[in-house]
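anyone else get weird line breaks when pasting these?? whatever heres mine. first is seq + tokens for prot A
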Amino acid sequence: MNTHTPVPVPQIWAVFLVGFMGAGKTSVGRALSHQLGWSFEDLDDRVQAREGRSIETIFRDSGEAAFRQAEHTALQELISELGNSPQIIALGGGAFVQPDNAALLESPKVKTIFLDGSVEELFRRCQQQDLERPLRSNEENFRTLYEKRRPHYLKASLRIETQGKSVEAIAKEVAVALGLDA
């Protein structure tokens, strides 16, 4: 007779936040990890640490293809480290669009959340950030890239509208949608 209580296996190992530049993936990820008591990681930070240089420098010196390969390798590494401690991961705007990356996230224990907003609000948010974004040159190019990527983002497990909402409200909405609200 088994006298010890089995350790419950988490229903979700990881929540990956996907979406376009300015969607709030990092901000919402941090807030959600705080709400749930889960760890948080930004894939872009991992890429920069592995490469020993900024994303802007990778794009400038090695090109987008080299960045996408480094991003894919970092994502493979991160997924191989997933265990019984659930975590929140923010992906870069182009990561989920890459078929090889999207395939890595096809697991019942992984949920992908598309943080969506209007292209106008996303562009405005990016303009307010003190970050150089390699693929943001002007609003017309920004809109074109958003429209090209959006169908890929819509393949995520869930879509959360971010328009006009606070970071905390979005994080709470994600937690509720996943059945993880306390």
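and prot B, same format (seq, then tokens)
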Amino acid sequence: MKKRNYKKTTDKIVTFIKETFKEKGFKKAVIGISGGVDSAVVASLLVKALGRENVMGYSLPCGKQKDIKDAVTVANSLGIIYETIDIEPVVNSFLNTLSYEEDKIDYIDNDIISEGNLKARVRMTMLYDMSACYNTLVVGTSNRTELELGYFTIHGDGACALEPIGHLYKTEVFELAKYLKIPEVIINKAPSAGLWDGQTDEGELGYTYKQIDEMLDTLNSNDGKVSAITNIYLNIFERIQRNEFKSELPKMIKE
């Protein structure tokens, strides 16, 4: 993996944000602040590009979550407009409604994967509602590793107007965070989407981000070829193939 100059990387992303907002005719941004490194980095870059008064951050926990204090730390350190909204009542209402029909549909209301995806979609619904109310753009926080693996919820955290760090592997996001002087408590915590208690990205993926990024970089640098078929290669390749549909536009009949 090539070594990046993170000053140049920062300047390039800031320019990209400015140009995208100008092109689309918007001045303000809405972003979900999770307390994790990705949203902290993107929020910091938005402040550099748009000014702190034009960045609206929302923490959207489902009930009590330990990392809410980290989201507050990020917002306070950047001085952005910030609010916390508990989405638990909305999620529970949805699950309770579905439970009435669980004998008719293929859904189990205690399935943690389905419930996690629901939380991600409720969060994005909230962000888009705020976007409509305040005439802002919703800014995504996905990195290249997540996007290539399809490690996101379609119409959830995968929905946004732009992805400022979508070209950076997760390990590169950590390096950029250090350059941007993101609080160490954010950088040092285990990455997690916060979709269920005890969930961590690396625990769910089965490998560290360093291992995954090295494999992805090898695949991208060698037209998908590797010198040896290993378990990590097989698992990553299978995940990419399985989730490829998430990045495709809806199919239509062409005339």
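btw re prot B: The chain has one domain: 6-202. The radius of gyration is 19 Å.
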